[in-house]
Structures
1.
Amino acid sequence: MLIRKPGDLRPSEITPRNVYLRRRDFMKAASALAVAGGIAIPEVHAQGRGPKLAVARNSPFSTIEEPTPYKDVTTYNNFYEFGTDKADPAKHAHRLKTRPWTVAVEGEVKRPKVYDVDELLKLAALEERIYRLRCVEGWSMVIPWIGFPLAEIIRQVEPTSRAKFVEFTTLYDRSRMPFTFMPVLDWPYVEGLRMDEALHPLAILCFGLYGEVLPNQNGAPVRIVVPWKYGFKSAKSIVKIRFTERQPRTSWEKAAPQEYGFYSNVNPEVDHPRWSQARERRIGEFLKRPTLLFNGYADQVAGLYGGMDLRRYF
Ligand code: MTE
């Protein structure tokens, strides 16, 4: 994410060749059909392969945009513990062992608890949330996640009045995560949110996508999804949730504080020091589209940042 200079980032790395070629073919076929008689174009989703997850309801927070095909969602990933190339996580993440798995919830709470992930899964009704994910590198996807609001677990553990932030720590297992031997980041991968952000109904604890359990490369068995922030805030394969009085120091902030701030709200007007954030390439599309403030979730979340200078708190 931070290692290369803008000139090093080739368009072919942002949208894999097969993705945009497939899209081009689809567009050709679609316009041929339209010319032939205005027939509605069917939705085409690649079939998933994981065990199913029972979803109790769809969420009113879902976008109506077309989800990115399953294949792209699960083969074009950022999970640096398994490699820095987008194709690496899908190749290496089978080494991740997702059971048994516990998540310790601790710090400034009245009821600290170590949850088994299967117990966590049953804590609240699972919803499908179709969210846009905007990566800081300039690409985006639309993903049908499965999970429930983070607020559900926050309520269970009863934070004290000193709890101002939430820190998420992810698995650090050198025997199973081949790239943690390299000093790409200060492992384990740590992310954080302010309490009101974590309590916002859009922020979810996520267990699946496309109706199935999360593939390892997408952060199995449990991850965070925060749709109005750049993708790196959505920590994968979490093992600890800690409530703190002081703002956590995140892995990306430690690696390059001038490039990755704590807030990292999607903002087309605040450039990354090495590239513009004004536009993005939706995976599967050829032309870039404008990036929206808070990734299009401004109506829901802008109120969290009233009076804050978003250039200073980037
Ligand atoms: N979580 C961990 N543990 N390690 C990572 O390298 N990458 C982040 C985030 N969570 C990352 C992580 C980044 S940069 C992005 S864009 C998203 O995961 C990508 O999620 P996806 O691969 O499911 O689309």
2.
Amino acid sequence: MLKGKTIILGVSGSIAAYKAASLASMLVKQHAQVQVIMTANGQYFVHPVTFEQLTGRKCLTDTFDRNFEFKVEHVSLAKEADLAIIAPATANVLAKLACGIADDMLTTTMLACTCPKLAAPAMNTRMYENPATQRNLETLRRDGWEIIEPASGHLACGDDGKGKLPEEKLLMEHILRACALPHDLAGKKVLVTAGPTQESIDPVRFITNHSSGKMGYAIARMAALRGAKVTLVSGPVALDPPPFAELVPIVSAADMFREVTERAPQQDFIIKAAAVADYRPASVNDEKTKKAEEEWLLPLARTQDILQYLGEHKREGQILCGFAMETSELEERAREKLGRKNLDLIAANSLRVEGAGFGTDTNVLTLIDRERTEHLEIMSKEAAAMRLLDRLVEISAEKTKERTE
Ligand code: CTP
């Protein structure tokens, strides 16, 4: 996702500097050009050679360091950068940046940078909570810096509290959100549903399905990286929630109905990727059902069709997208659902196609709207999520144009 991007990674003097090495490696794997700049104290914790090996570029440590050519390096680097991140950022570096002090290569370069700038503070809790540090962070926010909130936990000094550098994976998500994708969903509210529902039989047993939630989680993540305000209403899954989405955990179809319909009127886009149970046990036993010799026939009652309800209550300009999983006659059935449920788009996939369906990391989607059908090839669920969002953004623009004409 970072192909063609140049990223400055500033490393200052905190024990968390070791995490910057794996962040540098992750950035390189995403095809970014990574230029590491270390402060003098940063070099006590990790040797510059580590970063040089990982990035294939000289690690800059001195204001008068040169990389490839004899240019004014801090200025030319600042011009070249698509994003700068200081991780870890010490109280001292933050204070210098807040005051505009430029007394080494890192602070000098930051002063010349106009690209998005991120700082991930890492220090002892008392230092972090000190009014001077908080004041400096506030100044930096006002100056346009994105401050990544430190995590809480056991700190290297032995104290417990706030001040840990967040995990590299989370730092990476901040970087991706800041510079990887166009923010064409900025200011938009997107609600995504994901995962299965569980319908209780008794306190021990339930009915569910094979949905892993991966497709819905990928859509929520990508929408957030494209700038949307995302709400993810999710059934029980074994996935980490995407960092920038509000997670609303639910269990049953009735829970999902309640949580989704309450939030629906405020949404610009609703994408229903969840595999909602169509049936639930007609009654739930309070006690565990004891086994008997004869067959157990379980009467089932219909759950409410959430998507149908959303289609009936769709407000003007709102975009509604459903999913259809079929085992035969994919396109015909999906197109019929599109009309019947008043949808703008339906993403159909077949359980019979290799690489599509439950649990896989890939999907093979057919995107069907009122005018056209687009067959996508097999791709990662993230890539499929991007294509789906592209179509929804297009449909939304077309609808806005129609309304204003
Ligand atoms: N869905 C829903 N509420 C339900 C059942 C399904 O909102 N109670 C949504 C799913 O989230 C999905 C879409 O409806 O976006 C398709 O679900 P599916 O069960 O495949 O479609 P149905 O319309 O129920 O049709 P059928 O059972 O005939 O396949």
